[in-house]
Design a protein that fits this description.
The protein contains 18 helices and no strands. The chain has 459 residues and is mainly alpha-helical. The chain has one domain. The N terminus is likely disordered.
Length: 459
C-alpha cells in the first residue's frame, strides 16, 4: 500500500464506512447510540447496586472528580481545533496536536501518581491513596488515543465514533459486572476504567484508518492553536470550578455512601445531558464549522434537526421531573431512596443544558470562541455564590438545586448572542416549553398509576 500524502490525509476519510445500513445519518446514530448507552447504564447500575455497596460508588465519585479536574484544567481545545481549523487535516497539524495530547496525558498521570497521598488527604479520604496511584494510568492511555477520532468528526461522520463508543461502553459495563462479582468492592470500577482507556487506545489504532505519527511540535501550528484555543483553555479552568464543585464538596464533606447515592443519581441524569452535549459538540458543531469553512458565512438555520432532538429530550426530562422519585422507588432498594429526589431535581439542570450546549457550540463554530469563556465565567459566579450558600442552608439538596441551575445565566447570555446573529426564534423556543409541560404531565400521571399498583401489590 502506498504511504499517505505527507501533507494531506483527507483522502483517508473516504475509507470510513458510511454505516448507512445502520442509520440514515449522524444524528440518528447519535440518538440510537445514546439510548443504547442509557439502557446499558441502567441495566448495569441495577445489577451493580445488588452486588456492591453505595460506598463503592462513592469512591468513584471521588476518583472521577479529581481525574476530571486535572483533565479540565489542562484542556488544550485540541478536538475543537482539529475540527475548526482550515488545515486541520494536514499531517503536520495532526501530529503536533497528538504530541500535545500525549505529553498532556503523561503529565496528568505523573501528577496524580506523584501527589496521590496529598490528593487523597485533601479529599478527606486518605484510604484512597492506592486507588489514586492506580487510576493515574487512565489519563496516560487516554492521551495516546488517535486523532483519527476527531478527523472523523470533522468529516461529519460522527456515526462511526458513536457506534465505536457504544461498543466500548458495553464492554466497560460487562467488565465492571464481572469484576464486581469477583472482587466485591470499588476496585472493580478502578480496573474497568483502566481497561476501558487501554482498549480505546488500542482499538483506535486497529479499527480506524491509521494516521502515520511522529513526534512533532510545529511552532506555526502551536501559535495558531493557542490563538484559537486560548479562550477554550480559560473556559475550561472556569468550568472546572463550576462543574466539579459539587463532586468535590460531596466527595470530601459527605460519607462515601451518600456520595455514592449522589453519583448514582447524577450518572443517570447525565444520560440526557450527554446526548445534548454530544449532539452539540460532535454533530451540530461540525456541521456549523464546515459551513463556515466551505461557504465562509454563518449558517442561516439554527433549529432544523436540532429542534427534533430537543423535543425528544424536553419530553423525557419533563417526565423525569415528576416521575424521578417513583422511578428509583420502583427499581432500586431503600439505600438509594435519596437518589430519586436528586434525579428529579437534576432534570431541571438537564433541561437548561439542552438549551445551552447547542447555542455555545454554534457560536464557537462561527468564530465567536469567547462564548465558551463568558458562559463559563457566568457559571463560575453562580456556583461560587449559590453552592456554599444553599449547601449551608439546606444541605445536599440545596447543593443539588445550585448545580441544577448553574447554567441559567449562561443561557441568557448565549441566547442574547443568538439574537444578535439573527437566528433566535421565540416561536420555536415556545414549542419546547410546551413539550416540557406535556412531559411533566405524562410523568405525573405515570407516577400516580405506578404508585397505585405498588401500593396494591405491597411493593
Amino acid at each position: 500500500m502506498d504511504p499517505p500524502n505527507p501533507k494531506k490525509i483527507a483522502s483517508l476519510l473516504d475509507k470510513v464506512p458510511s454505516l448507512k445500513t445502520l442509520a440514515s445519518g449522524n444524528a440518528s446514530v447519535l440518538v440510537g447510540a445514546t439510548f443504547g448507552r442509557a439502557i446499558v447504564r441502567f441495566g448495569s447500575n441495577l445489577v451493580l447496586t445488588r452486588v456492591l455497596a453505595p460506598q463503592d460508588f462513592g469512591v468513584m465519585v471521588v476518583l472521577n472528580a479529581v481525574l476530571t479536574s486535572f483533565q479540565m484544567i489542562s484542556d488544550t481545545g485540541a478536538r475543537a481545533f482539529i475540527i475548526r481549523d482550515d488545515d486541520g487535516e494536514e499531517l503536520e497539524v495532526v501530529n503536533t496536536v497528538r504530541t500535545i495530547m500525549i505529553v498532556r496525558g503523561l503529565i496528568i498521570a505523573a501528577l496524580i501518581a506523584g501527589f496521590a497521598p496529598q490528593i487523597a488527604g485533601l479529599m478527606g479520604k486518605p484510604e484512597l491513596t492506592s486507588a489514586f496511584l492506580v487510576m493515574a494510568l487512565v489519563p496516560a492511555f487516554e492521551g495516546c488515543i488517535s486523532m483519527r477520532v476527531h478527523l472523523v468528526t470533522r468529516a461529519r461522520r460522527q456515526r462511526v465514533n458513536e457506534m465505536f463508543e457504544l461498543a466500548v461502553f458495553a464492554f466497560t459495563a460487562l467488565l465492571s459486572f464481572v469484576l464486581a462479582l469477583w472482587l466485591r468492592n470499588y476496585w472493580a470500577f478502578v480496573y474497568a476504567a483502566i481497561a476501558t482507556a487501554a482498549v480505546k487506545f488500542v482499538c483506535t489504532e486497529i479499527f480506524y484508518e491509521r494516521v502515520p505519527y511522529r513526534f512533532t511540535l510545529n511552532t506555526a501550528v502551536l501559535r495558531r492553536m493557542w490563538s484559537f484555543s486560548s479562550y477554550v483553555f480559560l473556559a475550561s479552568i472556569f468550568a472546572l470550578v463550576a462543574n466539579q464543585t459539587d463532586k468535590v464538596i460531596v466527595g470530601s464533606r459527605m460519607p462515601l455512601d451518600i456520595a455514592g447515592v449522589y453519583g448514582m443519581a447524577m450518572s443517570l441524569t447525565m444520560i440526557f445531558t450527554n446526548l445534548a452535549n454530544n449532539f452539540a459538540r460532535r454533530v451540530f458543531f461540525a456541521d456549523a464549522a464546515a459551513s463556515v469553512r466551505e461557504k465562509g458565512k454563518v449558517p442561516e438555520a439554527y433549529y432544523g434537526n436540532l429542534q427534533k432532538l430537543r423535543f425528544l429530550l424536553f419530553f423525557i426530562c419533563g417526565g423525569c421531573l415528576t416521575f424521578g422519585v417513583t422511578f428509583f422507588d420502583l427499581f432500586f432498594d431503600d439505600r438509594y431512596a435519596l437518589a430519586g429526589q436528586i434525579f428529579a431535581v437534576s432534570a431541571i439542570g438537564s433541561i437548561i443544558r439542552i438549551y445551552a450546549s447547542p447555542a455555545q457550540a454554534f457560536l464557537v463554530a462561527t468564530g465567536y470562541s469567547k462564548a465558551a469563556l463568558i458562559a463559563s465565567i457566568l457559571k463560575l459566579c453562580h456556583i461560587v455564590i449559590f453552592a456554599p450558600l444553599l449547601f449551608g442552608l439546606y444541605g445536599l439538596m440545596g447543593l443539588v438545586v445550585a448545580v441544577a441551575t448553574v447554567e441559567v445565566w449562561a443561557v441568557l447570555f448565549l441566547y442574547f448572542k443568538l439574537m444578535r446573529f439573527g437566528v433566535f426564534s421565540l416561536k420555536e423556543e415556545g414549542y419546547g416549553w410546551v413539550v416540557i409541560a406535556i412531559g411533566a404531565a405524562t410523568g405525573f400521571v405515570g407516577s400516580v398509576v405506578v404508585r397505585f399498583f405498588m401500593n396494591l401489590w405491597g411493593l
